[in-house]
Amino acid sequence: MTTALQITDLTKRYPTGTEALKHVSLEIGAGEFFGLLGPNGAGKSTLIHCATGLASPTSGAVRIFGHDAIHDYGAARQKVGLAPQDINLDWFLTAQETLDYHGGYFGMAKQERRERSRELLDAFSLTSKRDERTTTLSGGMKRRLILARALMHRPELLILDEPTAGVDVELRLELWQYVQRINQEGTTVLLTTHYLEEAEQLCSRIAFINGGEIVAQGTSPELAETYAVASLEDAYLELVGRKELSRGSVSEISA
Ligand code: ADP
To answer: Which residues form a coiled coil (predicted)?
Structure first.
């Protein structure tokens, strides 16, 4: 199987001295829908930043479809679409310009940019907002535009960092439907989320990260088995040391 993302012995120490990643190794196969779960401060964003060139690793290697993310940055970056956690839109651009500029940055020709942005604005129900400045869009529209922008250059690996934080239920389901569809069409997806049910439903494999280390990985039932518990949620509670919050134990207490 082709490897979409290969992380080998990755360590990231910030200038403050915080070791955000400690010898992390992780492999995601082409076509997978992979979930990365862990509490705040676990190192999820740092891992994503190292994979997309936004942070440089202290040591170790990252390869994206075989391209070294540091030494062959251009080729590696071309393969990746990133929808970051922060809404980092340019407030001076319209929705359409946001997509067009991004396409230009990734070397797409004008005609191709026009067609692709039209297609994505339509897919994300943003056509009526195409000429509006991003600052005037609602929160949900901004989220959709960020996802459209990530997909603009047809990346083979889509990285979604908490893409549905603060998004209402309908929009969340809509976004998932779209992401599931492009995964079925062949795009590899790496997702970080706090919604365990979502990870369980969407991800073919999940890794738990804590304190800068990958502590377990597998399918949702495999993770439950690793922690000798009944569900992914209980496995996660074991990971973060809060098993007293397990719904099983709450119903035992109230019984
Ligand atoms: P997560 O995304 O899982 O919440 P992060 O990767 O953001 O975790 O953070 C991992 C650790 O690195 C935390 O201790 C955080 O405070 C620290 N950290 C993140 N970014 C920086 C930075 N730019 N400078 C210094 N420390 C950072």
So the answer is: none
Atom of ligand 1 nearest to the CA of 212: 10
Q: What is this structure's pTM? A: 0.92
Testing ligand 1's pocket by substitution, the residue of 21, 46, 194 carrying the most ligand atoms inside 8 A of its CB is: 46
Closest listed residue to residue 57, CA positions, set 80, 35, 73, 81:
73
Pocket test for ligand 1, best of 12, 14, 49 (most atoms within 8 A of CB): 14
Residue nearest to atom 23 of ligand 1 (CA): 14
Task: State the closest ligand 1 atom to the C-alpha of 21, by its place in the atom list counted from 1.
Answer: 10
Choose which residue among 7, 13, 16, 18 to substitute to test ligand 1 binding: the one with the highest number of ligand atoms within 8 A of its C-beta.
18
pLDDT tens sequence across 225-234:
998 888 898 8
Q: Give pLDDT tens digits for 7-35.
A: 999 999 999 999 999 999 999 999 999 99
Question: Whose C-alpha lies nearest to ligand 1, atom 7?
Answer: 45
CA distances in angstroms from 147 to 45, 58, 89, 98, 175, listed in the order given: 17, 29, 11, 11, 9
Is the pLDDT at 247 greater than 70? The verdict is: yes
